[in-house]
Amino acid sequence: MRRVDWLLALAALALCGLGAVLVWSATEPRLLATGADPRTYLTKQLLNVAAGTALMIGLAAADHRVLRAYTPWAYLACCAGLLAVLTPLGRTVNGSQAWLGLGGFQMQPSEPAKLALALALATVLGDLADGQRRPGARQAGLALAVAAPPIGLVLLQPDLGTVLIMAAIVLGALFAAGVGLRWLGLLGVAAAAGGALVWWLGLLQPHQVRRLVAFAEPEADPLGAGYTAHEALVTIGSGGAYGRGLFGGDQTAGRFVPEQHTDFVFTVAGEELGFAGSALVIVLVGIVLWRALRVAGLAGSAYGGVVAACVACWLGVQTFVNVGMALGLAPVIGVPLPFVSYGGSATVSALAAVGVLLSIHRGHPPRGY
């Protein structure tokens, strides 16, 4: 028990608890208006957190070398899930065919695919020969080849937000593994070329194009494509320093911000908890990132260090994009706030990633533990 990074685990769980309350506050007015149970989303999110916590504990108790042995199977299963999304089993939500529906159960395969990609990249880049200090050209090329199928399948959905997060995971893996700068430069050129190709082939949905245009010119269409970003900023600003109190937000009660319990849950914190509550969310995420980077720096193997760095890049970039969407600092591309936004796939996957970090930390505890 002394080898457990309690600060990391408690910070993640505190974010989940705070997120469940914010989801409850965001969804209660709508459910009351329809006569439904106002605690429906709260109950579902608490079940998501419970499932994610159980998985986190299970992964934390496992030897990270065992996790490494099962990584190829996890990678193949996630690729199969991403492929199944593009079949009639897939369901379209907000313009992206990113959900897999089986009866009354829905999941988003791209969320666990982030963790599977991190583990797969670490397996490739952490497989160093005796005397080898950093990956060579063959390993770097193989890592890019491993990243291509899941990123390509997500791009076909199309889900630009998840593609961005996966690209950050790949970049973090290459950087943490110590590959040459030419590979990082090559990745940047490939990303730019891929973005240009996507635009030229017209793979973006019309609503995605409108969102990008609205980000470039926020005031051009405040009642159309720029409506969500405009209302999100107004909602956060109305909270002031200490907020209007939980369940007391006029903007939230009026449902002016779409998807407020998922992609824009940070606006609920801004209005009802104010700057203080919003800062608390950022501080808790910062603690998770700090501990993840600490695990990466103290890991006794290249594999553990790369996995931890990938998770830090994943959670850090996703948090920046999500909060940036609410503050007008990033285009609206639909990514959840880790641990806080409503959603089973995202919540369980983020807690599973924390479990992997705890496993790596437990296997190579720093001095003093």
Explain this structure.
This protein is mainly alpha-helical and 369 residues long. The chain has one domain. It contains 14 helices and three strands. The protein has helices at residues 6-34, 40-61, 64-85, 110-125, 137-155, 160-177, 181-201, 206-216, 227-237, 250-253, 265-272, 274-298, 302-327, 344-363; strands at 90-93, 96-102, 105-107. A three-stranded antiparallel β-sheet has the order 1-2-3, covered by helices on one side. Helix 3 packs across helix 4 and helix 13 (302-327) runs antiparallel to helix 14. 48% of the residues are buried. The model has no long low-confidence stretch (mean pLDDT 85).
Keywords:
globular; mainly alpha; 4% strand; 369 residues; 3-stranded antiparallel beta sheet
What is the percentage of strand-forming residues? under 5%
Number of self-contained structural domains: 1
> Cα-atom Rg, whole angstroms?
20 Å
Please provide the count of β strands: 3
The largest pleated sheet is described as:
3 strands, antiparallel
Strand order of the largest sheet: 1-2-3
Please count the helical segments.
Answer: 14
Summarize model confidence as the mean pLDDT.
85
Low-confidence stretches: none
H and E string = HHHEEEHHHHHHHHHHH
End-to-end CA span = 10 Å
Structural class: mainly alpha
Shape: globular
In helices, the fraction of residues equals: 55-70%
